[in-house]
User: Fold this.
Amino acid sequence: MAGLPPSPPPGAHPGLIVPVLRYRDARAMIDWLCQSFGFEIHALYEDEQGRVGHAELTYGDELIMLSSVLETPFSRHMVQPDEVGGRETISIYVVVPNADLHYSRAKAAGATILIEIKDEDYGGRGFTCRDPEGHIWSFGTYDPWGD
Assistant:
């Protein structure tokens, strides 16, 4: 069909959506996200000053990317949550097998709970929290793809 892009190369993931976050102390937040939320480091690139230029963290088969807050053409369009009164225009939802266990782990690690764990009307069980640098995360058992 005319006008459509060519087929992706083998191994590509067309339609893959990857959240990207920036942190002032990205290295510390990587450790916190791994310890508190169960992420694992997939890739980590730091400069000579120890700033994270790019990192990839996985949770199961899913991935997020993050970096330190650096002066780049992209960063001119971004602000950190504390610069806008702790508000966000986007949050991340992560499907977890056991929301209660995940809630306990996040709370024990110091996540600020914004919405307590509860059963949802649309199915599943979940909660919403803020990480130490203010980004908002929701975790729950509701899987929009269903089983």
